Amino acid sequence: MLRFLLHRFGILIPTFIGVSIVTFAFIRVLPGDPILLLAGERGVTPERYAQLQELLGFDRPLVVQYWDYLWAILHGDFGTSLVSKQPVLDEFLARFPATLELSLCAMFLAVIIGIPAGVIAAVKRGSIYDQSIMTTALVGYSMPIFWWGLLLIILFSVTLGWTPVSGRISLMYYFPQVTGFMLIDSLLSGEKGAFASAVSHLILPSIVLGTIPLAVIARQTRSAMLEVLGEDYVRTARAKGLSSGRIVGLHALRNALIPVVTVIGLQVGVMMAGAILTETIFSWPGVGKWMLDSVFKRDYPVVQGGLLLIAAVVMVVNLMVDLLYGFINPRIRQG
Amino acid sequence: MIFKHGLTAVAVAGLMAFAGAAQAKTFVYCSEGSPEGFDPALYTAGTTFDASSRAVFNKLVEFERGTTNVVPGVAESYEVSDDGLEYTFHLRPGVKFHTTDYFTPSRDLNADDVIFSFERQLDPENPYHQYVEGASWEYFNGMSMPDLIESIEKVDDMTVKFVLKRPEAPMIANLAMDFASIQSKEYADQLAEAGNEAQLNQKPVGTGPFQFVAYQPDAVIRYKANQEYWTDPAAIENLVFAITPDQAVRLQKLKAGECHLDPYPNPADLEEIKSTDGLQLKQQEGLNVGYLAYNTQVEPFDNPKVRKALNMAINKQAILDVVFQGSGKVAKAPIPPTIWSYNDQLEDDPYDPDAARKMLEDEGVTDLSMKVWAMPVQRPYNPNARRMAELIQADFEKIGVNTEVVSYEWGEYLERSKAEDRDGAVLLGWTGDNGDPDNFLAVLLGCDAVGGSNRAQWCHEPFNDLIQKAKVVSDQAERAKLYEEAQVVFKEQAPWATIAHSVVSEAMSDKVQDYKIDPFGGHIFYGVDISE
Q1: What ipTM was predicted for this assembly?
Q2: Helical residues (DSSP H) of A124-252, grouped into ranges
Q3: With a CB-CB cutoff of 8 Å, which residues 238-297 of chain B face chain A?
Q4: Strands B210-216 and B159-164
Q5: Residue A168: how many CA atoms within 13 Å on its side-chain side?
Q6: pLDDT tier, A186 (very low <50, low <70, confident <90, very high otherwise)
Q7: Closest CA to A174 of B32, B39, B26
Q8: Could you please report the per-residue DSSP string of B172-195?
Q9: pTM for the whole structure
Q10: For labeling, which of A52, A251, B89, B527 is most exposed (least CB within 10 Å)?
């Protein structure tokens, strides 16, 4: 197990350096000079331009800039935003809990609905249940997030008035942030109705962000289950006269879960992309919208630092998924 | 069923909370973005100014709400010396800085605060010059203040004198701009002592109508009315900015009663807003102009008659209908109608393709080929430059001018279009900074700006003399005459085809009273009330 862990951690280091090079290069390859974009129609004189280049350190060779950037990161300094003049790490940490809370809720929704739906579709293969679940999953997978979000807002928030339109909590509640997770902070605040308000604000964005992963998980669970249900040991279990609930729940599902867990891990990356749109629609103050804005403004330090931090999160999640395999399937642990 | 009841209960609780808040007069503004910070001198974005200078701070002189007129701010009066080089400001006594949970002022505003507010931008040795990394004081530099200010002197506790290197009539308007917000030196000193200078940009302390309470990044900013404001306190007690970047969602929030004002409704929704019960729409021309600048240094565009002929070929009304969808107004002058000295007597070039074709022939111009540059970005003065360029292309083709539309990445576009030997006419525009005509006419059409922001590369002496003269005269009526005359010269010479001024629309609840659209594009809530 220790060797397995060391091996997995060993892979993280070159991946991290690779990501740092890609993020550094990516924003610089895009056409667009941050100084000119910041100045806009007002423009800058050549002297002022040179002054600003020096001030921001863009006059140095790229290799030197990259080395300084990497060195600073190793010391925990992700740089300062060109636009807001605030440290990138502070900006990230102020927004990340919101994205994490939303992603966890969306994933929770996707898993608790997706896996049972996939199992039902597999067990009742070819039935009306199977067909409706798979058609719904296909529709969910193909749904443009923006349109889907707006549709839900118009129906549930404006027409029916069941849920709030956007935000994380009703504006009438005001309490200091302790953890950055609104569900926890609203409970800690002790204010009456705050938790319910936070939950009601989470419902629509979680549905929207969870839709695609839900569809993918349901489809993956179905195909994995079908494969496992055709295996010899399942037939043996049936022959032994075990109840079908026990066969499906204990023998089949556990083995079918390995590819499903892989997919769940990969969906974390997909979710980060989905978060950009979902956060914009629901005015959700997370990292997605923040990153998008900084790409448009060519805010080099934010794009570099933000992408690197997000990549680190995705890498850690995938590491956790790898470890989870070990628990589900001992053979992987030993290999 | 339990689920549904739970939600209904939440909705009811929310409504009750909202109703309770209405008694405390809470105004919720669905702002379109987050402020970059709270020290307005560091930034150039209107969104940042809405959250900082326009709510929390005052300036020596200010723009009268809803106009471009300059009125006294924390300076109750000022004098300008006869040679136009010395501006002496007499500060208003008894102006209090905000008392917050992070700062308690021990004294009222005085000359030290004014000097600190400018020195930190002017003097590279000032400890606050680089208090955040990369501070470049963009507006202060952009308005050429370092080249203009010789010194800022404290005459006595309540009097400050600005000495200039040369006379500059727009100086007063410059001092009403956001970068000129007055900070508390006492607060800055306390932060410096604690080694926490960056807080000046995170938790602002000003003398303005609202005081800062809290900010949750990308979510909400809270303010409360400054009850010790030097004039009447604001009618609304709590001001909340609910940050809502998506246009469609802002409108839904407005309809659902979750906010009182939507600053930028989608032009396609304007009719719906007008007809929705409980909502109102306010509209006003913006402080901007969109234009097509010929390169007047390149043949045959160095001939004013050729430029005039091309202007007559452009169907501006079609552009307004298609590109602006009703949110624009035909421009005939290089400055917008909301600016003083706007010459309403000017006659616009008529749309007459036949006459245009004939004029070109008379000038011996046949088989003309040209490029029209289309900006890659959206701006209020040009919501879709590509579409506009295509319409102009079609118009020019009608008079036999072969036209090619080109575009570049935005930074590149701005840089390349400055070149004096540039090939083609450029679509661009300008939004005013200080409401002074000099900010349009000298910046965009003055001889000094050729090779820079003068995209027409147009240096015409009679015009330049007029605007230079207007720059050093301090009497506004006299200046207005000079600028009116300059606009007549502009129209005769036609270095640009003036295309449109945008029309700003703001949607709000019909409970909102006394809201005025700010010509500078700001959103100002002092003076606004909400009915019960």
Answers
A1: 0.78
A2: 128-142, 145-152, 182-189, 194-229, 232-239, 244-246
A3: 240, 242-246, 248-249, 252-253, 255-256, 258
A4: unpaired
A5: 27
A6: very high
A7: B26
A8: HHHTTSGGGPPPPHHHHHHHHHTT
A9: 0.84
A10: B527
